[in-house]
Amino acid sequence: MNELTIRINKKHSEAFSLTVDLLLPNRGVSALFGRSGSGKTTLLRCVAGLEKSEDGEIKLNGKSWQSANYWLPAHKRPIGYVFQEASLFPHLTAKGNLDFAIKRADSKRKVIDYADVIDLMGIAPLLEKYPHQLSGGERQRIAIARALLIQPEILLMDEPLSALDDELKHDILPYLENLCQRVQIPILYISHSIDEVIRLADYLVILENGKAVEQGATQAVLGKLPTTFTQHQDTSILITGTIIEQNNEWGLSTLHFDQHRMMIRQGDENIGDAVRLRVQSRDVSISLSEEDNSSILNRLPVVVDALIKDPQDPSTIMVRMLAGNTPILASITALSAQKLKLHQGQQVIAQIKSAAVLR
Q1: Computed from CA positions of residues 165, 167, 171, 177, in that sequence, does the dihedral angle turn out positive or negative?
Q2: CATH tag, 236-356
Q3: H or E element: which one contains 142?
Q4: Which of 169, 179, 218, 265 has the fewest CB atoms inside 10 Å of its own CB, making it the most exposed?
Q5: Which helix (H) or strand (E) holds 335?
């Protein structure tokens, strides 16, 4: 089957063990999300063959890398690995680092062309420079290009942006977005940043204490109640859609999704582009009236799907609403929920400030 099977039962120490059973897509980005110590890197190292689980199975597209009586060594696994630090050879230029990967590549397997990698990562001006002459973001782009030129069947990325400051992260994320859209191999991406998950991940696995507590399509996992994310970061949902209009006078773009429209601050996108947006539950309010007398531009007709008390704050109610098939979460006071007499199946208006929508 064209999937990535990961079954691991590994005792890492007396205090920690990793026990997971995952069936992941064989294309797109699967994000491993969780706190430090949750088992993300151990899982990735087991897939790479850098660590061996006592009991487990790892299989990609029907090819076994580990089973009860079989073990494929790390150097024979067709992987590209990007670490937190770029780890380039300091005595080689950027091009020399890439040439090293080409020599190691399987000539029978063609994942991406050299010219495409250079264009995809925007590194043509950097090729004759040595690592010490590059910024952290530039070094990491070279490291990603090097991992791709091995022509891997899977790309493993262990928090590739964690060593960069916010400005460099902002600079490199567009390159990662292009990479994730263009490369037709599965990518396992470790992160503890919800922004990276929402911008990049198609599938999401949340790890806690060595176990997968949530997994599924990113939009579905983020839109669940109760949501595991309340224990990690501000609860957010993912909205995906297509830009259908742009208003340069007001600096706004119109996004179409599930028969709904939203106005968002204009970015670099063009009409027809697919866009992924993050909306925090604290930036969503609820109205019973359809009268258009509010400063909030985005007033979406939705249906209340579920309500629960926020486990972190008993005075707050989390409300899950559906805009078509897209879940939207709102965090409101319990008093507000009572005054509005909110209940499952109720038709209401979800209000989202254009300025509050995050990319």
Answers
A1: positive
A2: 2.40.50.100
A3: helix 136-149
A4: 265
A5: helix 334-340
Q: Read off the DSSP letter of residue 12.
A: -
- CATH class of the region 3-221: alpha beta
CA 333/CA 220 separation, integer angstroms: 24
Name which of 75, 97, 89 is nearest 147 in CA terms.
Answer: 97
The 3-state DSSP class for residue 150 equals coil
Query: Where are the domain boundaries for CATH 2.40.50.100 in the chain?
Result: 236-356
Residues in a beta bridge with 236 = 280
Q: Which amino acid is at 81?
A: Y
* DSSP-assigned letter for residue 106: -
Q: How many angstroms separate the CA atoms of 334 and 224, rounded?
A: 19
According to the model, what pLDDT value does residue 231 have? 59
Residue holding tokens 């928090």? 159
pLDDT band of 163, cuts 50, 70, 90: confident
Q: Which SS3 state, helix, strand or coil, does residue 168 take?
A: helix
Q: What is the pTM of this model?
A: 0.89
What single DSSP character describes residue 272?
T
CA angle 260, 328, 305 (to 5 degrees): 105
Residue range(s) in the chain whose domain bears CATH number 3.40.50.300 = 3-221
Residue 19 has pLDDT above 90, yes or no: yes
Alpha-carbon torsion angle 27, 146, 158, 9, nearest 10: 70
- Neighbouring-strand partners of residue 203: 30, 217
Structure tokens at 234: 């501000």
**Contact criterion met (CB below 8 Å) for 147 and 113:** no
The mean pLDDT value for 140-166 works out to: 92
DSSP 40-92: HHHHHHHHHTSS--SEEEEEETTEEEEETTEE--GGGS-EEEE-SS----TTS
- Using an 8 Å Cβ cutoff, are 147 and 162 in contact? no
Question: According to the model, what pLDDT value does residue 292 have?
Answer: 66
Burial class (CB in 10 A: 0-12, 13-18, 19+), 347: exposed
Any idea which residue has 């990662």 for tokens? Answer: 176
Rounded Cα distance between 272 and 187, Å, is 26
Alpha-carbon distance 326 to 319, whole Å? 14
